[in-house]
Amino acid sequence: MEPPTGFSASLLSFIRFLPFFIGLLLLGTTKGILFCPLICLIIATGNTAIILGLWIVHAVWTYYCVVRAKQFGPILKLVIGLCVLPVLLVVYPIVGILGSIVGGAAYGFLSPIFATLEAVEEGKDDKFYHCFIDGTWSTVEKSCMVVRDVNDVCFHSYFSVMDDLRQKGPPNAKYYEIRLLYIPGALIAAVIGIIVDLPIISFVALCKGPYMLFKGWHRLFHDLVGREGPFLETICVPFAGLAILLWPLAVAGAILASMLTSFFLGAYAGIVAYQESSFLFGLSYVVAALAIYDEYSNDILDMPEGSCFPRPQFRKEVDTSQRTSNSNSVLRPSSFRKAPSRTSSMKNNNIAELKSFELLDALFKECFRVGEKLVSEGIITRKDIKEANSGNGSRVISIGLPAYCLVQGLLRSAKLNSVGDETELTTSNRPRETFFDWFVNPLLIIKEQIKAENLSVSEEDYLCKLVLLSGDADRLKNSSVGPAPESEVKRAELEALARRLQGITKSMSRFPTFKRRFDDLVRSLSDDLTEIHGGPIMTRSKSAFARLISLKSFKGTRANGSAQGSQHVAKDLENS
């Protein structure tokens, strides 16, 4: 439905909607007040029990892994054990418990409110019923999921990280060590950085505060009149109007945040002096930090590029591709240099921005589809299922299967340059979280490497099976894939790509919700294996299957069961 045009029509629509909105808000608030104590109790009690119950185990195992770590030198281990770990082990339970209480109360109160407002969206049936039901039992279920995810992080993710710390050797055969000779100079540089940067950055923030205040008001009022931005949807108008009233508080918070950040920005001069083994480079950073903040704030406020502060070089080795002239902002992405039309982007662009969880859901749906195929072909065996259900886990399923789906997506993405459909991941709809970039950017680099390699069909099959079977020579030999490439260089390149993909997937496996989705996948594959090999036919866990199918994911066409690789993961990684 198109929003009303014109100030009078917009104002009339707002007045008509206001009583309806107030009624929904009161209903949602009532549900929030009723469910807030229960949700807070579930999250706070569950997380507190996990944190306190595992605190001694975490403390002992952390010290053990630090002592046995091959990447740390003896002096660094001593400093970490005496200065860092005691502070972390004391702060960790306090922050975790307080965060669970506050987060549980906030989630228990706000989730029913937002669910009530979302119940009247277009396309939903029986809106009156959903206004009362939505946000009640679903909030309880999600609160239990939060506790389960915290449990997975404390058990699975923590021990996975600690195992890597304990087992991995030092890079370049040199372990990390503290160089005592440069510590005094680093401390002096940090103190000078705080003394210089803190007052100057605070002054710059105070000077730019009024500009931020009036520019923000101008933009919000412009959106209100033109029904753009946060005022596009009628249901968001009251919240956007509240944003106009509370904008001065946001400006004050930004100024205080700049003042607080300036402390750490100045103290970073000590790290620069230590890393570069030069006190002069630390002093250079003290001056350059002023220009960095000035340029960054200019980018945020859409002010003229550049800075009135000098920016001396504070690194011995500088990436020339990252450098720009003094007239260009270093921190401004290319997308900022030409701002898109706000009207056209809001009204004519129907591409919805994807979320990281949606992409993770899509990956597991593809793992489920491909996993069923591999089970039917006998590539995934009963031993793999048993290992996945055990405490040790199975590298073939937990690491190999997701990496197998990713590599097939990368192979197809490297071959195709299609425009794609609504399931395609592009720069227009990709998630904006920095956390997402940590995973997708390395995959895009691997895609370009695969494109440059120009692999043959047999080499592609070998790479896929190499990724899936985790480099198991016996299983690779017994599988239906052809022999390894004759060229040692090509074989080494494929093995390096496989190791990188497995490393990325292993990092993804530490994501808080990964373990929960993985358990559902294992149960479904276990049921498939039982049906194929006969014996007592187990009824497929409807809850596990339904969760995999009903997860919010891409709206694209479903797989037709072909024997080719991934369904949509290929297009997912196509970057326009």
TrEMBL record:
Q: Where is this region: Disordered?
A: 316-344, 557-576
Q: Which InterPro entries match?
A: At3g27390-like
Which residues, if any, are the signal sequence? Answer: none
* Keywords recorded for this protein, A-Z: Membrane, Transmembrane, Transmembrane helix
Q: Where are the transmembrane segments?
A: 6-27, 34-58, 78-110, 180-206, 239-265, 277-293
**Coiled coil region boundaries:** none
Q: Where is the composition biased (Polar residues)?
A: 321-332
What is the name of the protein in this document? Steroid nuclear receptor ligand-binding
Gene that encodes it = LOC100797156
